[in-house]
Write a structure and sequence with these properties.
heterodimer, A: 805 residues, alpha+beta, 5-stranded mixed beta barrel, 5-stranded mixed barrel, globular, B: 190 residues, mainly alpha, 9 helices
Amino acid sequence: MDSSEIERQADALDAYLQGVPKDNLPDLPLEEANLAQSIRQSVSSWIPDRQFSNRLEEQLKEKYKTANRFNWRSFLSTLLRDLAYVALLLLFIGGLNWSIRHLLPKTTAQPASNVQATATEIPTSTPTPLVEPLQPTLAPNAVRSPLFPNQQLILQAEFPQAPTSVSLYRQMVEQPITVETARQIAAQLGVNGHVYRPLQSESGQETLFVSDGMRRVFFSSNRRFFYIANYAQQLSRQGQPPDAGTARQVALEFLQNHNLLNLPYRFEAAVNRYPGTVKLVWMLDNRPVRYPDLEAPAVYVEVDSDNQVKTVEYNRLEIEKVGDYPIISAEEAWQKILSEYPDQGIEEYSGNSPIFSGNPQSWQRTYPNDTPIEIYGNLEMLQPAEEGVSPLFTLNNLTVQGNQQNLEKLAKSGKVVKVLGMIHQNEDGLQVLEVQSAVESDKEWYSISGEIKREGEQVYIVNDNQKALLLNPPTNLPVGNQADASGILQDEQKLILDWYWINSGYNSAGGGGGGGSSTPFRELNLSGDRSGLPTSTPLPDLAPTPQLGTRLEGESGILSMDIRQYADGKQVREAFWWMEPNPKFPDGLSLQLSGNLQGLEAYNQFPIRIWGTIEDNTQQPYRFNVERYELTYPGLQPQTWVGTEQTATVAGKQVILFTDQAGNQFVLKSSIDFDPDNLMGAPGDEITISGFVYPDSDFGGYAVIREVSARVNSAKSGASSSQVPQGDNPFEIPVIPEAGVLEGSNVATVENIELVYYTEDLYFIQSQTENPPFYIQPVWRFSGHYENGETFEIMVQALTEQYLK
Amino acid sequence: MQHNSTDNNLKENNTLFLQSGLPKAQDFAELYQRYLPQVYRYHLARCGEVTTAQDLTTQTFIAALEGLARFRGQGSFLAWLMGIARRQAALHFRSQRPTVDLAEAELYADPAPLPESAVLSRLTRQTLYQALSQLSPDRAEAVALCVIADLTSREAAEVLGKTPAAVKMLVLRGLRDLRNILSSNSLEVE
């Protein structure tokens, strides 16, 4: 099967997924299509629980009120300007994200009432020259990679000169946790308790707990555990966390005392972990081992404000040496990133904006000893994994003793439970809940986000919609700060919250980032024998880059002008030109123009012919020096039409027919190229379209409108997001806010280059024994930050070509 | 099964905002109702667990609402939203490893025993989740977005930072891999 056949299959499958009938798709791969249909039928039953969706909707409404204060108006004005045209503009972008931005027209609301199908005069006066010289948008010293078309890369690190060969290892497969192993490791941690299983495990793998009442250790395999020093207070975090030095000292002491440092390690910043958390990354041959997605096989030790270990998340590596192999240099790896035709074996991960603001703190409800109390909560039940041991029950993390009648049934119900009883402190200092009676309650969990406010003796969580009174609030809540509180509503009318957990300083919008564009790592070919390996073929979606100096002699394409508005007030005007795919340029061509651009601004969105030379092909859009240009269709004028849209089959193809008020019918070019059934608004809505009809256009006997803008006319709001050609400025040039407005950042600075070991996190691998060996292979890691502070890393497989499949 | 192009949603969004003047709370509520199933299914397919999928869905919509001002209409709203969903999922796996989740999730007991039909549904979900987990990350993402969350290849391309052609190829290859995995494991999707 050649690449074009695969492409046709991929296109057909994509069309099928969009609803095109099978019979119309001769290239459709039936088995994949049937599988996709089966999956869709299956997932159609995945419907969010109504209670959950209603609760979330309420939560969003509350949040909306807050957002509305700051953003709605500016958001709307932006949206009204830009959003309505995105679908149309997407038709023209040829798949390049950069051009989405450049093609967005600036839009001005216009009354719809007087718009008629009229031709618009082309300006007769001398066109205004570009007021600023065209400037490249690339930052100084920046380069681009075809892999990351939206990013500029700046290298601010030296290439390491060594090594030229390294050892290669493989991970030993993890074993399911056994009762005996769990007991042994727990004892190593000083936890001498019974072994339990969760009531219900969906993961399909054995999970065990060891609990001595106070401490708890959770195991997911023979090499991974999570230790909690005080289960009853695990959610409580207050006070000033220790400084990094102290935390490291406490963490190391704990790990050494419990014989948990079985490999060399290095400290790394524990990004997005609670303050006071120490991260130790395992090292092999003095090089850190890393997982995908900015992660690493590591040990995380959280040290609390009393300099005590609070939690330990542990992941032990078991390895075996495979052999020694040659590797490419760091500079060669960098060139692979920049390669015009990037091979597989490069992965990029980014993210990690802060999820905490300031010093996050949280409070977990405590109760007085030896006093009759009424507690609501969810009952947790752990089943014994050993003979002769009773189940372990906890309520709100408190160990439950006493009358255990009905507890199993209540735990399995998942409902809120009301318990009457008394809390005692045992000889180990552990608070236990002595139950007198336990019954199912009709109360439900409730949560609220807002500002902590104090009014006299009362403390509230307040947002624009609600004001919840906290029963027995902690005395040290940071009044004025934002917080989330959850618990049981004692009074639904007065919103009296019997809180269970309050946390402040967590930023739910933080974190994330996710991967950028990348190519998968290649499998290893450790024999070095390349006979029998398939010859690599170029990626089918990459067209050859035009050679430097390639000339265009009157090729026709669409001109698009931008004004780039910088925060300091400076404006830079830019001219772009794009051409649809043709035999010479099968992926089309996008250029940024310079040179003789006199008068060009008057022809924004017009088809023009250009003569000149490609003078820079190292980045997209390619830079093109214009020697001269002329209108493709002299005398062509933009027009506006008012009418309605409908879908129709013309020349055997589904398209959108536009009928103007005079009854003339046109085919919309967007529906030929891209989306044949995407009507504007509802069927029959009155639409205003601006664009061109080229003299030679014809589709099945209809003239074709190349739309530049369109809108649904709305008498109700009078709102519009379109522009209508007016007078001497047929299509206004869009103003693109540059600094301080665009989301995120696209300049990535590489600050560190190092050779690391890379391997998969086996936690995410199903059926480890059935998969290929999990090698720990050398990888060149280029890491740094975006302008906005987010971290990123690009990893390039370092084994020489001979040892990669 | 006929699936509407999600690009329609984009135009519907436009109409929604255009006809209503300043967007009201119910406008966002309508967007929420419209896209909730897609976001939820995406998360469920990627994490395989209802409780976690609900948490991630919650985080996705809250982050979307808080970041709404940063959506400048430079692409599909759904693609923008699913980009947030993808980041939230990445954050979940990165900073709250399941060991931590499980420890804290103990606070909230599992729901009532599932009826038979729900058990079957869960088996299917587990099957899909396990099979997806065995794909290369890019292919799994492409299948989750285009087949399960019902994005167009163009929208998925925005989310993944790839060309639509590359996404189509990833979907084809991802489904091919899935077919092999499911057949070799003697697992049925339906």
